[in-house]
Each structure stands twice: as C-alpha cells, then as structure tokens.
Amino acid sequence: MPRRHLIIGGGTAGMNAMRTIREEEREPSEITLVSAEKPYSRMVLPYYLDRSIAEQHVFTTSAALLAQWKVKTHVGRRAAALDTKANVCTLDDGSKVEYDDCLIATGSSAVRAPVPGADGANVHSFWTLDECRGVIASVTPGSHVVMIGAGFISFTILNSILALGAKLTIVEVAPRILPRMIDDAGAEVIEEWLRAHGVTIRTNVKVTKIEDARGKKRVKFASGGDLVCDVVIMATGIKTNLEWLKDSGVRMNRGIIVDDHLRSNVPNVYAAGDVAEGRDLVSGQPALHAIEPTAQEHGRVVGANMAGKDIAYKGSLIINIVEVCHLDAASFGAWDDAKADTVVGAKRDRSAYRKYLFTGDRLTGAIIIGRSGDVWTTNDVGMLKGLVQTGVRLGRFKDYLKAHPFDVKTAYIASGTAGTLLPETVLGRPAKAPGETPVAV
Amino acid sequence: MKVLKITPERCTGCLRCEIACSYVQVGAFQPAKSVIRVSPFEGHTSYAPYTCTQCAEGWCMTACPVGAITINAAGAKDVLDDRCVGCKLCTIACPYGTVFYDASTRKAFKCNLCGGDPACVHACPTAAIEYEEVATRDWLHDFAAERASHVLATNGGRR
Q: Which of B67, B92, B157 lies at the smallest CB-CB distance from A321?
C-alpha cells in the first residue's frame, strides 16, 4: 500500500484527489501537497471580479482544513522535475519530496497572442487569482476594455466587465465568436443578442500590435481601424503546464497519456484535470478537456485509486455553460460532429436555439441557447446532459425530439433516462457531502 | 431514506404541488419557481409530477466548485445560498434536469425535501406524491412511455 502520496497542483483535480484519499483509505497515509498558489476555484473568479463575492470566497481550503486532513504543504512552490526512477520530485527551490505514488495535476496557464506589446502595462490575462486582481485594479466605471479573443474565458467575464460599468469591445481573429463551444448558427444568435446589449464585437480581425498612447492603449489591426482603450484583456487560449516533465519519462501527447485508472505509463504516477488526456465519454477516445467537471471527476477517481480502490473511469463528458447578459448558452458532448444526424430548432424572436446531434437513435451532442428566465431553457439543460451522458436509446422518441425540439422532457422521461441514471456513480458508492470528510487515524 | 414516491396515474394536473412548493421554497405562489414540475401527456389529458430523485451520485453536489451543495438532515442535496455564486455548473451537471437557477436571487435552487416535511406531499389531494421509506426509482417511465406512444401512434410524432 502506498504510504506517501504526493499531489502536485492544488487546483480542482488535486483538491478532489486529496479529499477522496481521506474518504476512501482504510489506514492513515501521508499526503504532501505542492501548489504554486493557495488553492482556489478558478470557476468563481468572475464573481470576485465584479465583487459579487469577497476574495475569501474563492478559496477552496484553508491552512486549518489542510492540517485537519493531515496534509503537508509546500504552497508557493512549483514542481521543477520528476525523477520517476527514484520517486523524487524536485521543487523550484531545490528541495526534494519523496513519494510512493504521485498525482500530476499542474493545470494550465493563459497564453497571450505573440504580438508586440502583449506584455505591456495594462494588458492582462484572466486565468489566475493574481491576474484577476490585476484586472480588478485596472477596470473602473467608464473604462473602455478591449478583450482579445471571443472564446469561453472571455465570455465567462463578459458580465462582470459590464457590471463594473466598463464599455466592452471584443475582437476575434476567427470569423465568429465561441468557436469551440457553439456552432455557427448558435454563435450568430449570441452575437446578435450581445450587440443588442451594447457590446461591440469585431470578428475576422488580427491584432498586430498593442501600443501605449498617452496613458491609454492603442490596439492595432492588420486590417486597420485602431482601437484606443484603457485596458486590454488577452483571452487567447491556455496551454498545459507540462514543460517541467520533459525529462521525466512520463509519456505525453498534447497531455499526459493515461489508462482507464488515470495512470500514466509510469505505474505510480497519475494525471488528472487539464493535463490528463483521459477518456471522452462519447467518443471513447483520449481527449484533453480542460473543464472543471472533468477535473473534479479525474481527481476523485485518482484519489480513490491512490487509496487502494480499483476504480475504472468511464470517461468524461464535455459540458459548458455560459451566461451573457441573461442569455444562456450550453453545449454537451459531440456538438460539432459533422457525421451525426442533426436537427435544429429556433425561435428567433426569443433568441432560442437548439441543435441535437444523433448517432443512430442516441443523442451524442447538443447545443441549447435561450434566455435565462425562460422556463423551457432551464428545464431542458440538465435533461439534454442526461440524454447525452446515458446515451439512452431513444427509439421512436428520436423522431419525436426531431419534430419537437423544444419538448425534451417527454422524450427524456418516456425513454427511461432517469432509471438508467439512478444506479450510476463515479466511485461505486454514494458521493459524500463537502465538509464531511473523515480522517483515518 | 424517505423519498418522494410518485404514482403518476393518480395525478390530476391540479398543480397544487407546484403552488405549495414555490411558496415554501421561495415565498411566492409561482409554478415557475417550483422545483417539482408537472408535465402534461397525451395532449393535456394526463399529467405527472417530476422532481429531484436525491440520486446517490449527487452530480450537482460533486460539480459545485465552492462546496455550496450539501446533504441536509433529510438526506436531500441542498443549496447553501450564502456559498452559491450562481455559476450554473450544477444546472448542467445534473443529468435529471432538476437543478434550476433563479435569476432574481442569482442562485441555484432545487428540491431539498423541505428539510424532511415536503410541502408537495401535503398539497397533493390524490396521494400521487407520497413521502415514504422506499428505494427510489424511475416512477414515470412506464406511464410516460405508454402515453407518449399514444401520441406517436395518432400523429406519428408530427404536429
């Protein structure tokens, strides 16, 4: 039995792994956490940005709780190298931590577009708590904010920027917004909605330079038409934090290659969250999801396996939701599968849009857009997730759903989706509530 | 654990459960704010209430990034309003479609079994909703499959 667990990364995957080790183990073990930052939830930073929560609210643990869990901590330190022969991790201050098994959950970092001025004053990324603090210090009521990149990260902070009283312009090199979350027609619905709500959007524009301009910033484009603003936020993507592993012998593709127990090619080294190429539930293929729910499930599965359980992971489902100016947009599974049998439903006057993608008589992907206050939107998001997650055979209800895309409930209930779901658990037992984690002594 | 046992054949579609639920949950007589929702079948000639099963996995609870969903004394998954930031992740993580978002409070809300004394059970005049110590199951599947089939048989699923 591994007695010394090393958790590298204190984000969602690492925190879930530590909690699950303590939930599952029969005998007490040592846990050591190496975390570059004090653990917090990235998901809730947008709510700190607009001050709807206090900074304290973002933290997912405290020194006291970690002490209660008997976790030895190296907070503020990064892992610099992993010797998988000697089972030793070297930290950035040269200190070494020995382990019996270890979890790599080092997450991702924001990447800026490689243009001159990208590292200048008042040009921010929005990914870490520190970066969030930087944006908070820069944006004031009446500021003009230019957000470079119209992807998921931009959209999660769009409401907060507006709530701070700033004027917002979004610029995107692609011909449309949210290219990795929503299809073309859905993107059009959201763009139209945002324009009606006072957000300026420029697509198909390539930033060439960011200059200082008498206390302001000037963003230059290949096609001309400079923008002068107060603050620039670059939301131009993320990359996995894996460089430190290059001589470790851990096999990597875009992320760390793992088996169905989330083990790497080195049997006592696991990977979870953004850095792990775990199984995608719909395709069955390895995929780099980099989303919160995948990190949670990965972390729990690894924690159970580190504690001596034998938990095979079925795979994670891509799910995303973002609300912009009271319009919800969500997508599930293989929403961009060109080979799928597809049906689209739209109520343009309500900014409501649906797209369902079927493989045979199973729903394998879905997109839903609608006003946050519309009951038919809020009713259906979870059911669409359930249909994609279970892959329940719809039989004749597939045609029903195609004919009535805004009546998901009938097909959901009549095809027995709830009954398929009831026995399903990730760890083979009921989940425990947060805060009721026992510590074996 | 006591669960909401649904006998859809007894439901008359009177919506008293929704009215009682919304009143206890949010203090308003407003079906849109109810966490038990009555669905029509067979062209509004039969009805069935649908709500959270308090499933073992608790997809909403494990998904919450700030630990704002817990298990209350009745064994129900319950949203802690002072922890919830309104990120909606639980609403898409729940595969049953039974976690909702209240735009006026900017919080998620769901069935918490009224802490162990469910208002919908008291309100139901025909005992279509009972609160009993039984294993939960998919109470509506057979009922819905049969009735929805009638619709498919008569118009082939097309309006």
A: B92
